[in-house]
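Re: the 201-residue chain
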Amino acid sequence: MSSEKSPIVIKKYANRRLYNTGTSTYVTLEDLSLMVKAGEDFLVYDAKTNEDITRSVLTQIIFEQESKDGQSLLPITFLRQLIRFYGDQMQALVPSYLQFSIERLVSEQQKFRDQVTSTFGTPMFGPIEEQARKNMAMFNQALAMFNPFNPAAKGASTPTTTPAANGPDAAKPGDELDELKKQMSAMQKRLDSLSGSGGKR
């Protein structure tokens, strides 16, 4: 019975050189990028302080890839919006949303590849765009629930309709908090259900 492999340890020294302790060789960011693409898991530690700097190194790899012609994955509008979320009250929600979206894309990628192969010559991004629209709709619903008193949110579609929302007391200010809690609970159940059926965690 095969046991799960431990992540490879990469040491980063003061001269910015990266040392792969698994192969006992120095590596570059490009080498680490190839390891990620090959599905090899690794952790990067500062050789002096032993601090885990994996996040910053992965971010640096993305920066290097984004700098190459024809390699960009992150639209400027996305980067600007991402920057706006730092320090915003919605910041805590963004990582979960992005992780949920990328996990759905990963779980569905073979289906997308198969469709492109079998229907070559037809629009190939339809399924991806449809999934993106669904994800964005869910995200907008979550935004509306976390910002119930935002005038812009009132114009958004309500994610879940409950009898209380259409009842005679729906417009009373005292019921708004209870209704918000119900909507948040329903939305969480939907996210859990989709995440559970969408693929790997």
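The first helix runs from residue 29 to 37.
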